[in-house]
Structures are given as structure tokens and as C-alpha cells.
Specification:
Blueprint lengths: L1 H13 L1 H11 L14 H15 L3 H18 L3 H7 L3 H6 L1 H11 L7 E8 L2 E7 L6 H14 L2 E9 L5 E9 L2
Antiparallel strand pairs: 1-2, 2-4, 3-4
Helix pairs in contact: 1-2, 1-3, 1-4, 2-3, 3-4, 4-8, 5-7
Length: 178
């Protein structure tokens, strides 16, 4: 589904021909867009790098923008109900992320899904621990959190507080009513 999301973002922003050119350059096609398949991160990152080049963005910025886009894309697609059941506000959603990933993992047992735990919560502030066996997707996660903030009509910022010990600690500061 990630590959379908990148495809949709490129088509939405640049048109179908830009995606067709991406497929030709990378030598990919419909097989690399099958939902439910688990692909090597190298292929996913190649697709994102090519999308970044076409969108004239640095790869890290493209990952953030794709993370934002992903939330809207997932909401419109087959994972929309998963998002709805995960929570109707930002703190509840973040608290339930691992439960949602458990459900996704049932459908995709070979997927290497991340783990999120809420380390602290206070009014307008969340401290979240993000862990993943996969590397290079931290900016994508930052973008997803920004997308969730938009989904729940809150404004704010996401800061990386620490990256030691195999985890990324994120601070989310937000205000309701965006």
C-alpha cells in the first residue's frame, strides 16, 4: 500500500505521465503496487527517491510530505476504518497505534511494523517513543504525525528529542482548533 500511496501522490501533484516515467526509469509496474505484499525497503526508498526528484524535493522533505499525504490516502482507502477505530483525537490515536499495527500485522504477517508508546501526556503535549527495525523512515513518521494533527484539527509541532538507545523520542506540542 505504501507504493500505491507514493504513486497516488505523484499522480495528484504531477499527473499520470510523471508516474509512468517513474515506472519506466525504475523498471517497476503493477507487481510492485500489490496491496498486502511486503517489499524490501530498498525498493520503497528507490521509489520515494525518484518521486522526490520528480517533485523537486530533497528526499527527507519528500518523506515528510509523503507521511502527511499517507494519512489522507489511507483514510480514503481500505485502511480508513482502521484509522477510525484507532482513535478520534490525537492522544487516543497515538496510544492505540500499536493495537492498530497488531491488526495490520494479522493481515500482513511478514510486515516489519513499528512500535509506538506514549511516554508522557499532558495538556497539549505528548512524548512518544518510536521503534522500528527499519531505518530511513523517521521523516516519514514525522510527516504522518503532522498528517494526524491535520486529521484531528490541531496545530503544533513535532520535534525529535533523542535518537539513542534504538528509539526515536518525539515531542508533539499541539493546540486544538486548527
Amino acid at each position: 500500500m505504501i507504493h500505491k500511496g507514493v504513486r497516488a501522490m505523484v499522480i495528484d501533484q504531477l499527473g499520470d505521465e510523471a508516474w509512468q516515467a517513474t515506472e519506466r526509469k525504475l523498471g517497476i509496474g503493477p507487481t510492485e503496487l500489490i496491496t498486502g505484499m511486503v517489499y524490501e525497503d530498498t525498493l520503497t526508498l528507490e521509489i520515494i527517491a525518484e518521486a522526490a526528484a520528480r517533485l523537486n524535493l530533497p528526499i527527507e522533505d519528500c518523506l515528510v510530505e509523503f507521511g502527511r499525504y499517507w494519512i489522507k490516502f489511507a483514510d480514503r482507502g481500505p485502511f480508513g476504518p482502521f484509522l477510525d477505530f484507532t482513535g478520534h483525537d490525537l492522544p487516543t490515536f497515538v496510544t492505540n497505534l500499536d493495537r492498530m499495527h497488531l491488526a495490520v500485522g494479522t493481515a500482513m504477517p511478514k510486515a516489519q511494523l513499528p512500535s509506538f508508546s506514549l511516554r508522557s501526556i499532558s495538556e497539549g503535549r505528548l512524548e512518544v517513543e518510536y521503534r522500528s527495525e527499519r531505518t530511513g523512515l523517521e521523516k516519514f513518521v514525522l510527516g504522518q504525525i503532522c498528517g494526524l494533527m491535520e486529521r484531528f484539527y490541531v496545530t503544533g509541532s513535532v520535534l525529535v528529542m533523542d535518537t539513542s538507545g534504538g528509539a526515536t523520542i518525539l515531542e508533539i506540542i499541539y493546540t486544538a482548533g486548527a
